[in-house]
Design brief:
Layout lengths: L2 H4 L9 H28 L4 H10 L4 H8 L6 H12 L1 H8 L1 H11 L2 H7 L5 E2 L2 E2 L2 E4 L15 E5 L4 E12 L6 E7 L9 E6 L6 E6 L10 E12 L7 H12 L8 H34 L1 E2 L2 E2 L4 H29 L8 H24 L10 H8 L9 H13 L5
Parallel strand pairs: 3-6
Antiparallel strand pairs: 1-2, 4-5, 5-9, 6-7, 8-9, 10-11
The structure holds flavin-adenine dinucleotide.
Length: about 400
């Protein structure tokens, strides 16, 4: 058999199901999300009516997100998220923010935990619910190992008691279910951490400061204060047996395995990259259409090479970002390890692309681009988050640098 005949099929064609899903999400983004974007950006509030509309059609639902997460090629989630964020990033994050908490439980939790808590992070029409993933703290952002929130086990009552303050939590304080990363053994740094499910209405959990932000303002971001929060033993994600085995391995000098927060972020990076691609594409399309219509010196501004070249670079980098994203999502779905930090590559490149492309879109719109009468100004503010959350661009470079050199780059 020739090499050609043995080679596995390679295709960038989306399956018919994924194309149908993409068009359906796109339609929702165009008709419901986009028209609401400016209003909720100004209001800086969770867009409950939009979530309700999305729940009614089945878009805001555990079924939809889980279906795309487990879609066989791996491209379901990135394709869906690109379309949602093409509609609007702030509303997009309000619609998808619960997924990070869901992934934290799905990737580390037991089947019982997945079955019990994930539905409570989404709810259904007329009864919308939210999830929040709380890892970052005022003094522990990039440095996840510096987390001070402490979880102490009480044998007598089979309860965990949590104390600490979480910063920057998407849906923090308004979520029904919070997933909190805490230290169970501070001497072990990030290796001594675990995640805990805080059920709805648990006493001692409250919202601290709600942050007023530069962009993605329709997404709620707040501190979460944990003051003697008591949760039953079964709320430890993955269960006590698994944690005890890990701590015992560490005590005998063995490897810890992956850290709870890191495992969540690794799985979610291509998804965040897809969000950035959606915002970049929205700005690119707007600027492209503007450049073909706006005339100066008696011709469309797009006829100037300076403008056309900018559009050429914008389109090229968006496609490159999407390909890196799809590759990472495909690898993750098919169990390929990110040996060159491919997840981080996708997030780094897509995040930086979104910032640059939205800035170029403002440039192409000139004065109009700088005003709130046109959406590219909002897109630019929104895009900046993609170089900050889920690991800053510098942290992604650190991870990639370590992976490609094999050196302990610091
Ligand atoms: C809108 C929003 C939503 C968020 N949602 C969530 C959420 O739902 N859950 C959650 O847990 N967190 C969330 N975060 C937190 C987010 O993940 C952190 O802000 C991010 O990880 C950076 O941490 P920091 O803000 O403390 O910055 P710092 O860690 O203080 O970093 C400041 C600067 O120093 C650089 N830096 C730090 N260390 C290094 C290094 N070793 N090498 C090179 N440069 C370095 C950084 O790249 C950055 O430029 C959110 C943040 C925002 C703004």
């Amino acid at each position: 058999m020739s090499e050609d005949q043995q080679a596995p099929a390679f295709s960038l064609d989306l399956s018919e199901d994924t194309r149908t899903m993409r068009d359906w999400v796109h339609d929702f983004a165009a008709t419901v999300i986009r028209p609401a974007a400016a209003e909720w950006d100004e209001r800086e509030e969770t867009p409950w009516p939009v979530l309700e509309e999305a729940a009614k059609v089945g878009l805001y639902s555990l079924d939809f997100f889980a279906g795309q997460w487990f879609e066989p090629t791996g491209l379901g989630t990135p394709v869906a998220f690109e379309e949602i964020f093409w509609g609007d990033a702030g509303i997009g994050l309000a619609l998808t923010g619960s997924c990070l908490a869901a992934v934290a439980v799905a990737s580390n939790g037991t089947n019982e935990q997945i079955g019990e808590w994930l539905p409570q992070m989404f709810g259904g029409p007329g009864d919308i619910k939210l999830g929040a993933f709380c890892s970052s703290e005022p003094d522990a952002g990039s440095d996840v190992g510096a987390i001070r929130t402490r979880a102490v086990y009480s044998e007598a009552t089979d309860e965990w008691v949590l104390n600490g303050t979480k910063a920057w939590a998407t849906n923090g304080g308004i979520a029904n279910v919070h997933v909190v990363v805490a230290s169970v053994d501070p001497d072990l740094g990030s290796r001594g951490q675990a995640s805990f499910i805080i059920p709805p209405g648990t006493r001692g959990l409250s919202q601290g400061q709600k942050f007023r932000k530069h962009g993605i303002r329709a997404s709620h971001t707040a501190e979460v204060v944990l003051d003697d929060v008591r949760v039953p033993g079964h709320c430890l994600v993955g269960g006590k047996e698994k944690l005890d085995a890990r701590l015992a391995r560490l005590a005998s000098g063995g490897a810890a395995g992956e850290q709870a927060a890191m495992k969540t972020f690794e799985a979610s990076r291509p998804t965040v990259a897809a969000m950035a691609v959606g915002v970049a594409r929205a700005a690119f399309e707007y600027a492209r259409d503007y450049a073909t219509q706006r005339e100066q010196f008696g011709k469309p501004i797009g006829q100037n090479q300076a403008v056309a070249y900018m559009l050429a670079d914008m389109g090229t980098s968006i496609d490159a970002a999407r390909l890196l994203t799809w590759r990472a999502a495909w690898m993750a779905r098919h169990g390929h390890k990110f040996t060159s930090a491919e997840g981080s590559m996708s997030k780094l490149f897509a995040g930086e692309t979104a910032v640059r492309v939205t800035e170029q879109a403002i440039q192409i719109l000139g004065g109009n681009g700088y005003t709130r009468e046109y959406p590219v100004e909002r897109m630019h503010r929104d895009a900046k988050i993609f170089t900050i959350f889920e690991g800053t661009s510098e942290i992604q470079r650190l991870i990639i640098g370590r992976a490609v050199t094999g050196l302990p780059v610091r």
